[in-house]
Amino acid sequence: xxxxxxxxxxxxxxxxxxxxxxxxxxxxxxxxxxxxxxxxxxxxxxxxxxxxxxxxxxxxxxxxxxxxxxxxxxxxxxxxxxxxxxxxxxxxxxxxxxxxxxxxxxxxxxxxxxxxxxxxxxxxxxxxxxxxxxx
Amino acid sequence: xxxxxxxxxxxxxxxxxxxxxxxxxxxxxxxxxxxxxxxxxxxxxxxxxxxxxxxxxxxxxxxxxxxxxxxxxxxxxxxxxxxxxxxxxxxxxxxxxxxxxxxxxxxxxxxxxxxxxxxxxxxxxxxxxxxxxxx
DNA sequence: CCCAGAGTTGACGTTAACGTAAATCGCCGA
DNA sequence: TCGGCGATTTACGTTAACGTCAACTCTGGG
Lengths: 135, 135
What we know:
2 copies of one chain form a homodimer. Chain A is mostly helical. The first copy, chain A, has 2 domains: about 1-65, Orthogonal Bundle (Multidrug-efflux Transporter Regulator, Chain: A, Domain 2), CATH 1.10.1660; about 80-130.
């Protein structure tokens, strides 16, 4: 499955690429996040699926639920032909996500401050220890 | 409970402040994240608890598990008197969190790009619609 | 004194996101 | 032809993080 042009991937390949289990990948399909082709009963993944998987995992790391991610993906897929309601709904969703990201950035900023603070105190405490013999 | 100096809070007050249920607050206590005083059987929260709760919720928004958050809090609490092993462990933890935050920042950056992209296509699709009669 | 309202305890229920295990299938090389 | 490897299906199990209820208890007000 390494011939070029339109690469395809087996489930175990994808699994290794992203360090998730095949089970996880099948589960995402079941939840409507992936739609691999079949060759017999075996799943065949294309780049589109790989990208979707990447986006899904990124979304997860940012704390989005699979359901949220799926809604975006679905609307996106129906994009060039979607009706006005769908499109507006998508814009709404996007705005929500942006707000979310903004809050997270703020949270990260604050969290960094606290890490700095804690680390400072921690180093002070280490300095103050009598046994500074081991490096 | 509004006398100043050392303010205290009831569980429902905290609950309203942070928009979480009392159940959640009790659960966090059970998980070792809060240690309110008691007045009879009733919990009495001080500013320390309020701060801890705030940190906990922030951690949650950033995708940390309660267990992770607790470990940091515990080590932090034992701070000025902790032994060298504890202190080093805490520094390790802090470094981990930092790495984590960095990855999240990158994820946010990438996610923003995609939102921009999707929004662009979405607006194009809206423009292309025949019925642009409603604003 | 009595009760309404806030708080508590204990226990069981729920949801998301997978893990795990068993049975089956299909293909490929010795 | 057979054995093994990778993939699949089905189904039940698990974990975190609470929700939901029922049955108290306590406390201040009228």
